[in-house]
Automatic annotation (TrEMBL):
Organism: Mammaliicoccus vitulinus
UniProt-listed InterPro entries: UPF0302 (IPR011188), UPF0302_N (IPR014963), UPF0302_N_sf (IPR038091)
Pfam families (alphabetical): UPF0302
UPF0302 domain segment(s): 9-105
Protein name (record): UPF0302 domain-containing protein
Amino acid sequence: MNHTWLNYEKQRFIEYILYKYDFKIAESVWILNLLKSSPKYLSNISFVRETTHDRILSISTDRSKQLPLLYCKEQFCIENGRQIFHDIRLDETHLNVLLYLNNNDDRLNRLLLLQMLVAYYGEEKDLRPLNNNHNSLHHWGQLIRNEIDKSLDHNDQDTFLEMSKILQFINELEERQ
Protein backbone atom coordinates (compact mmCIF):
# COMPACT_ATOMS: atom_id res chain seq x y z
CA MET A 1 0.00 0.00 0.00
CA ASN A 2 2.78 2.47 0.89
CA HIS A 3 4.46 1.73 -2.41
CA THR A 4 1.43 2.76 -4.48
CA TRP A 5 0.71 5.70 -2.23
CA LEU A 6 4.33 6.88 -2.35
CA ASN A 7 4.29 6.62 -6.15
CA TYR A 8 1.21 8.84 -6.17
CA GLU A 9 3.02 11.37 -3.95
CA LYS A 10 6.05 11.32 -6.25
CA GLN A 11 3.81 11.87 -9.26
CA ARG A 12 2.04 14.81 -7.57
CA PHE A 13 5.39 16.29 -6.59
CA ILE A 14 6.72 16.09 -10.15
CA GLU A 15 3.55 17.76 -11.42
CA TYR A 16 4.06 20.48 -8.81
CA ILE A 17 7.68 21.22 -9.78
CA LEU A 18 6.82 21.19 -13.47
CA TYR A 19 4.21 23.86 -12.76
CA LYS A 20 6.20 25.92 -10.24
CA TYR A 21 9.74 25.95 -11.65
CA ASP A 22 11.41 26.79 -14.93
CA PHE A 23 14.16 24.42 -15.97
CA LYS A 24 17.31 25.31 -17.89
CA ILE A 25 16.66 22.96 -20.82
CA ALA A 26 13.59 21.38 -22.37
CA GLU A 27 14.94 17.85 -21.93
CA SER A 28 14.57 18.24 -18.16
CA VAL A 29 10.83 18.67 -18.65
CA TRP A 30 10.71 15.68 -21.03
CA ILE A 31 12.48 13.51 -18.46
CA LEU A 32 10.28 14.63 -15.56
CA ASN A 33 7.18 13.95 -17.67
CA LEU A 34 8.56 10.51 -18.51
CA LEU A 35 9.20 9.73 -14.84
CA LYS A 36 5.69 10.71 -13.79
CA SER A 37 4.05 8.90 -16.70
CA SER A 38 4.09 5.38 -15.31
CA PRO A 39 4.16 3.45 -12.02
CA LYS A 40 7.12 1.56 -13.50
CA TYR A 41 9.24 4.70 -13.46
CA LEU A 42 7.80 6.09 -10.23
CA SER A 43 8.63 2.85 -8.41
CA ASN A 44 12.23 3.05 -9.54
CA ILE A 45 13.01 6.62 -8.49
CA SER A 46 13.96 8.20 -5.21
CA PHE A 47 14.50 11.87 -4.62
CA VAL A 48 17.74 12.58 -2.76
CA ARG A 49 19.48 15.54 -1.10
CA GLU A 50 23.03 14.79 -2.21
CA THR A 51 24.88 12.85 -4.85
CA THR A 52 25.48 9.17 -4.41
CA HIS A 53 27.59 6.56 -6.15
CA ASP A 54 24.45 4.95 -7.52
CA ARG A 55 22.70 5.80 -10.76
CA ILE A 56 21.81 9.48 -10.38
CA LEU A 57 20.12 12.21 -12.36
CA SER A 58 20.55 15.85 -11.40
CA ILE A 59 18.21 18.47 -12.81
CA SER A 60 18.58 22.22 -12.32
CA THR A 61 16.14 25.07 -12.46
CA ASP A 62 16.98 28.14 -14.51
CA ARG A 63 18.29 30.10 -11.50
CA SER A 64 20.60 27.37 -10.25
CA LYS A 65 24.35 27.53 -10.77
CA GLN A 66 24.54 23.79 -11.39
CA LEU A 67 24.71 22.05 -14.76
CA PRO A 68 21.30 21.97 -16.43
CA LEU A 69 21.19 18.19 -16.58
CA LEU A 70 23.64 15.50 -15.53
CA TYR A 71 23.20 11.74 -15.51
CA CYS A 72 25.74 9.40 -13.97
CA LYS A 73 25.71 5.64 -14.15
CA GLU A 74 28.55 3.31 -13.21
CA GLN A 75 30.96 6.27 -12.89
CA PHE A 76 30.17 7.42 -16.43
CA CYS A 77 28.43 10.80 -16.72
CA ILE A 78 26.61 12.44 -19.62
CA GLU A 79 25.03 15.87 -20.11
CA ASN A 80 23.18 15.26 -23.39
CA GLY A 81 19.48 15.46 -22.60
CA ARG A 82 18.37 13.21 -25.46
CA GLN A 83 20.82 10.47 -24.48
CA ILE A 84 19.76 10.77 -20.86
CA PHE A 85 16.08 10.53 -21.80
CA HIS A 86 16.62 7.37 -23.83
CA ASP A 87 18.80 5.70 -21.22
CA ILE A 88 16.23 6.35 -18.47
CA ARG A 89 13.47 5.08 -20.76
CA LEU A 90 15.34 1.82 -21.43
CA ASP A 91 17.02 1.17 -18.07
CA GLU A 92 14.57 0.00 -15.42
CA THR A 93 17.00 -0.03 -12.50
CA HIS A 94 16.69 2.32 -9.54
CA LEU A 95 17.42 6.00 -10.20
CA ASN A 96 18.19 8.69 -7.62
CA VAL A 97 16.97 12.15 -8.62
CA LEU A 98 18.73 15.22 -7.25
CA LEU A 99 16.95 18.51 -7.86
CA TYR A 100 18.65 21.89 -7.75
CA LEU A 101 15.68 24.15 -7.17
CA ASN A 102 15.69 27.93 -6.79
CA ASN A 103 15.06 27.69 -3.06
CA ASN A 104 14.44 25.35 -0.17
CA ASP A 105 11.16 23.68 -1.13
CA ASP A 106 8.89 22.40 1.65
CA ARG A 107 7.17 19.90 -0.62
CA LEU A 108 10.50 18.36 -1.59
CA ASN A 109 11.48 18.16 2.08
CA ARG A 110 8.17 16.48 2.94
CA LEU A 111 8.64 13.95 0.14
CA LEU A 112 12.19 13.20 1.30
CA LEU A 113 10.87 12.59 4.80
CA LEU A 114 8.06 10.35 3.51
CA GLN A 115 10.57 8.31 1.51
CA MET A 116 12.65 7.81 4.66
CA LEU A 117 9.63 6.66 6.64
CA VAL A 118 8.39 4.32 3.92
CA ALA A 119 11.90 2.90 3.53
CA TYR A 120 11.96 2.18 7.25
CA TYR A 121 8.41 0.93 7.79
CA GLY A 122 7.85 -0.69 4.41
CA GLU A 123 4.37 -2.12 4.06
CA GLU A 124 3.94 -2.73 7.80
CA LYS A 125 2.48 0.64 8.73
CA ASP A 126 -0.05 2.83 6.95
CA LEU A 127 1.66 6.22 6.78
CA ARG A 128 -1.03 8.01 4.77
CA PRO A 129 -2.55 9.72 7.85
CA LEU A 130 0.84 11.33 8.49
CA ASN A 131 0.83 13.02 5.11
CA ASN A 132 -1.47 15.95 5.51
CA ASN A 133 -0.89 19.64 5.91
CA HIS A 134 -2.02 19.65 9.53
CA ASN A 135 0.95 17.58 10.69
CA SER A 136 3.80 19.94 11.37
CA LEU A 137 7.43 18.97 11.51
CA HIS A 138 7.16 19.29 15.28
CA HIS A 139 4.40 16.66 15.31
CA TRP A 140 6.46 14.34 13.11
CA GLY A 141 9.43 14.90 15.41
CA GLN A 142 7.33 13.83 18.39
CA LEU A 143 6.28 10.64 16.63
CA ILE A 144 9.89 9.80 15.81
CA ARG A 145 11.02 10.61 19.38
CA ASN A 146 8.42 8.14 20.64
CA GLU A 147 9.85 5.50 18.30
CA ILE A 148 13.35 6.28 19.60
CA ASP A 149 12.13 5.87 23.19
CA LYS A 150 10.58 2.50 22.31
CA SER A 151 13.78 1.37 20.63
CA LEU A 152 15.75 2.28 23.74
CA ASP A 153 13.29 0.39 25.94
CA HIS A 154 13.70 -2.70 23.75
CA ASN A 155 17.46 -2.30 23.17
CA ASP A 156 16.81 -2.14 19.43
CA GLN A 157 19.94 -0.48 18.07
CA ASP A 158 18.93 -0.65 14.39
CA THR A 159 15.65 1.15 15.02
CA PHE A 160 17.39 3.67 17.25
CA LEU A 161 19.96 4.52 14.56
CA GLU A 162 17.40 4.76 11.75
CA MET A 163 14.96 6.88 13.77
CA SER A 164 17.81 9.12 14.95
CA LYS A 165 18.76 9.74 11.32
CA ILE A 166 15.16 10.67 10.50
CA LEU A 167 14.93 12.91 13.58
CA GLN A 168 18.14 14.67 12.56
CA PHE A 169 16.60 15.38 9.14
CA ILE A 170 13.45 16.76 10.80
CA ASN A 171 15.56 18.97 13.08
CA GLU A 172 17.47 20.33 10.07
CA LEU A 173 14.17 21.16 8.38
CA GLU A 174 12.86 22.89 11.49
CA GLU A 175 16.02 25.02 11.69
CA ARG A 176 15.49 26.25 8.11
CA GLN A 177 11.96 27.45 8.83
